[in-house]
Each structure stands twice: as C-alpha cells, then as structure tokens.
C-alpha cells in the first residue's frame, strides 16, 4: 500500500477514473476525422482558467474532458497549417508509461538513457551519420539547432565556454528561406542575429551558391571569421531543398561547419520519392529534425545529431562533484544526456519515439510520407487546372503555395480572408505566407490522415469563398 501524501486515498476509485479518461481519450482519437478542424474557445471555457489558485483540491476530470475539442485541430485530416504533425494513438500509451515511471532522463544508469541511445543510433543510421555520431532527443528542431550551432561555435572558438565571445567576429550563412530558429540560435548564442548572413535564393527558393561563395569571400576580406553554413532540407515556406552536396563542398573547402535544418524534410529520406535529393544530408556535421512533424510521434520530440561525438561532449560536459559518475551504482552509465545538451532534468521523450518506430517500422512511415508528397502533387495538378487559382511556388515536397486570382487590387486581403473563413468555418486549416511579396494560401501536408479527396474539398471551398468575397468587394 502506497502512503504518499499525494497518492490516491482510494486506488480503486483512481483506477476507475483513469480508465474513464483513457476511454474518453481513445474516443477522441478514434474520431480524429470527424467534425470541425479548429473550434474557437468559448468564453466560459476561457473563464475556467482565470480563477484564483485553489487552496484545497477538487476533481479536475470534468474540465479535462471539456478541453479536449479545443486543441489547434492538427489531429484532423484537414489540418495543413504551419508544419504540424497529426500524431498517433500509440504515442498516448508510451506517454502513460513514461508518466508512470516518472524518470529523469538527464543521466545516471537506468533504462531511459539506454532507450535514448537506441533512438539516436537508429536516426544516425537513417541519416547516414555513421556509428560514431552522437545525439540527443530534444523538444524540437529549435532546441536542436541551438545545440548544434553551439557545438559549431565552440569548435571555432575553443576558449568561448570560459571566456565568452570577446572580440571574435564569427559569421555564419544560411538562405533567406531558412526557418527563424536559426536566427534565434545566433541571437541566443551571443553571436548576434546580424552575424547570420541571409543568402539569396534561386527561382526554386534554394540557396544561391554563387552568392554564398561571394559573401564568404567578402567577409574574409573584411577580417571576419566565417564558421558555419546552414542548409535547409525542406524550407518552411514551400519545402525547398537546398543543394546540400553543393553546400557540403563549399563548407569543406572553406573549413566551415555544415549544419542541416531538416525539421520535416530530412525525414523524407525514409521514403522513396525524394530520397535522392536528400542524399547530401549525410555530409553534414550536424542535423536537426523532428519526430513530431512528418514522422507523426506526439508532441514534443525532435533530435540533434552531431557527427563528431567528442566536439559535442566538449561543448556541454562540465559535471560538478554532486553529479560525478561512478563505475558502479546508479551514478554509473556511459551516456549522460546532460553531457550533450543544456537540460539536466528532462522527461523520457525517447520512449514514445522508440515505441512509434517499433510499432510501425520505418518502411510504413516512409510510405506515409510519400503518400503526403503524392497528395501535394495531386493538389498542384488540380490548381493548374483551375483558371481562378495560381500557383506561387514549385512543389518539391509536401507544401503548396497558391492564391485565388481576382481583379481586385486587394488580392492579398481576399486570400487572407479566405484562409480565416476556412479556419473559422471548421472546414480546413491552411495558413498563409508571403512569397515574392504576394500573399499565399499555404497548404502543408504532414498529416497521415489526409486523403486526395480532402484536396478537392479544399479547392472547391477556396473557389466558392474567393468568388463570394470578390463579388462582395466589387
Ligand atoms: C524548416 C523548419 N525548421 C525549424 C522549425 C522549428 O521546429 P520546432 O517547432 O520543432 O522547434 C520548423 C517548424 O516548423 C521548420 O519548419
């Protein structure tokens, strides 16, 4: 009999409640394709979360049931906003086990570091990083990028961990289409976001390598210290894949650290359709990508991989006496996550990733990614057939950017309104972006539940709303 202050006084009652809540969760997951995509929060639900701090306990079950319809909607097959994964029911089970174990995966000799290393090994294998690569399962690509670029910075500036940046004038390079997490990493690493040179892109939104070479030469001539280049495997706006081999060649010649942001795109290596374009991923010094996007594990889970394990460890390892490892006992264990990243206390994220890979196998996950790419191509073909729609970017991967064409001077506002009405009606959730100055309806398909028929429904609705709004504006 457990006697902790916070343990249930009646375990049978707890078990019954837990089963009821699990049932409600399974019903929600089973009906992921039903009903509205996104539902705005009703005021009375918001009010539940502006109350005074409770001094005594009460049962939160009802409120937890009530909140379930009010997520962003990314479990629904018609959610295509930003880059959200749809998740999978099996992840819930792994999270239950992880919560019940309540391990701290920062270090020590227990099962969590062993599972995490297995996941890292598998990912290094998938990405062609070799047996000696190190890595860490993290919250997502944003954190993975900070870790990778810190290793790159520390390698370029061996005294930086103790002495700080000082007068060093490190500069790095990436394309104008790179995700903002790279700029944020430069800011957080004390390099300054201006030290990140935004290289121009070609018509396919891929990094212009002539511009890259010219910028590196200009910076060297100015006495700056180029130290890294960041390529993108799947740009957030339209899925462009940089010429990774070309960047790798330049990085090698210029002695730069080569990092790849592969948040969603790199995972298409497990499919067949674009595997060849992603071959250059394996030449990177470091790679960041997410499981919670195109691999469909539940939030949150991403990974950083670093080819040079010793550079990775040297960038973070610094354990004081109270964290000293021992040969035997619980303080043993060869892999302490705290030696490879900023967090000491951390949850057992690796379990849901491991369980997901084991349950589905990498071939099925690859087929699911390929199916999304086929669906994006299907949508592109439909857009090409519709005189009132205009494609605004090529579709190298899984993202379509297009717009409804009107004679109205305010075409951007009409397209923005189309997207908002699609969201508010609960029919679909695309998002928007701007390409070459034009507002685009952006449909990102990282959703294993999406079917081609959903694309037809989307196009029909865009045409209907576009016509209605154009008439109203006339
Ligand atoms: C290309 C790219 N890089 C980085 C990120 C950031 O990833 P996360 O949200 O997992 O931190 C995203 C998110 O959409 C992305 O699309």
Please characterize this protein's 3D structure.
- The protein has 15 helices and 11 strands.
- It is α/β, with parallel strands linked by helices.
- The protein has 2 domains: 18-81 and 362-474, Aspartate Aminotransferase, domain 1 (Alpha-Beta Complex); 98-360, Aspartate Aminotransferase, domain 2 (3-Layer(aba) Sandwich).
- A 7-stranded mixed beta sheet has the order 1-7-6-5-4-2-3, with helices on both faces. Strands 8-9-11-10 form a 4-stranded antiparallel beta sheet.
- Strand 8 and strand 9 (399-404) form a beta hairpin.
- Helix 6 crosses helix 8.
- The protein starts with 10 loop residues before the first helix and ends with a helix.
- Pyridoxal-5'-phosphate is lined by residues 82-83, 140-142, 179, 181, 234, 236, 261, 263-264, 290, 302.
What is this entry, summarized?
The chain is α/β, with parallel strands linked by helices and 474 residues long.
Task: Write out key terms for the chains shown.
single chain, 474 residues, alpha/beta, Aspartate Aminotransferase, domain 1, Aspartate Aminotransferase, domain 2, 7-stranded mixed β-sheet, 15 helices, 12% strand, globular, binds pyridoxal-5'-phosphate
Would you identify the CATH architecture of the largest domain?
A: 3-Layer(aba) Sandwich
| Mean pLDDT value | 97
* Ligand set: pyridoxal-5'-phosphate
Low-confidence stretches: none
Helix fraction by DSSP (H/I, runs of at least 4): 40-55%
Q: How would you name the CATH homologous superfamily of the largest domain?
A: Type I PLP-dependent aspartate aminotransferase-like (Major domain)
- Gap between N and C termini: 74 Å
Q: What percentage of the residues does DSSP assign to strands (E)? A: 5-15%
């Amino acid at each position: 009999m457990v006697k902790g202050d916070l343990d249930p006084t009646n375990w049978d009652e707890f078990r019954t409640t837990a089963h009821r809540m699990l049932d409600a969760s399974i019903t929600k997951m089973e009906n992921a394709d039903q009903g509205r995509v996104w539902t705005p929060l009703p005021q009375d639900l918001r009010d539940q979360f502006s109350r005074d701090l409770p001094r005594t306990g009460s049962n939160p079950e009802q409120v937890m049931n009530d909140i379930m319809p009010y997520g962003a909607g990314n479990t629904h097959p018609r959610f295509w906003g930003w880059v959200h994964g749809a998740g999978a029911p099996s992840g819930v089970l792994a999270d239950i086990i992880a919560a019940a174990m309540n391990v701290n995966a920062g270090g020590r000799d227990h099962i969590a570091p062993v599972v995490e290393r297995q996941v890292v090994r598998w990912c290094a294998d998938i990405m062609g990083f070799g047996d000696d690569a190190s890595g860490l399962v993290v919250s997502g690509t944003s954190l993975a990028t900070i870790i990778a670029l810190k290793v790159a910075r520390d390698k370029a500036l061996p005294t930086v961990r103790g002495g700080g940046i000082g007068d060093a004038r490190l500069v790095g390079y990436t394309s104008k289409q790179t995700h903002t997490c790279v700029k944020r990493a430069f800011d957080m690493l004390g390099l300054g976001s201006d030290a990140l040179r935004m290289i121009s892109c070609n018509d396919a939104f891929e990094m212009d390598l002539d511009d890259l070479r010219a910028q590196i030469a200009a910076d060297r001539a100015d006495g700056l210290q180029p130290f890294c280049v960041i390529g993108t495997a799947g740009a957030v706006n339209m899925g462009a894949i940089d010429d990774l081999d070309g960047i790798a060649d330049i990085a090698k010649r210029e002695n730069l650290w080569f990092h790849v942001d592969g948040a969603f795109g790199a995972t298409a290596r497990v499919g067949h359709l674009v595997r060849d374009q992603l071959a250059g991923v394996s030449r990177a010094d470091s790679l960041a990508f997410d499981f919670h996007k195109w691999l469909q594990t539940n939030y949150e889970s991403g990974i950083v991989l670093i080819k040079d394990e010793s550079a990775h460890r040297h960038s973070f390892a610094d354990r004081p006496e109270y964290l000293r490892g021992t040969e035997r006992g619980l303080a043993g264990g060869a892999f302490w996550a705290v030696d490879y990243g900023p967090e000491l206390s951390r949850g057992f994220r690796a379990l849901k990733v491991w369980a997901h890979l084991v349950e589905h196998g990498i071939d099925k996950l690859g087929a699911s990614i390929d199916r999304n790419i086929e669906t994006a191509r299907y949508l592109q073909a439909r857009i090409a057939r519709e005189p009132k729609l205009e494609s605004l970017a090529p579709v190298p991967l899984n993202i379509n950017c297009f717009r409804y064409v009107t004679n109205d001077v305010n075409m951007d506002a009409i397209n923005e309104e189309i997207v908002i009405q699609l969201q508010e009606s609960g029919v679909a959730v695309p998002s928007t972006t701007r390409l070459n100055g034009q507002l685009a309806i952006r449909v990102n398909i990282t959703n294993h539940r999406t079917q081609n028929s959903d694309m037809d429904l989307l196009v029909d609705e865009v045409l209907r709303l576009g016509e209605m709004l154009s008439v109203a504006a006339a």
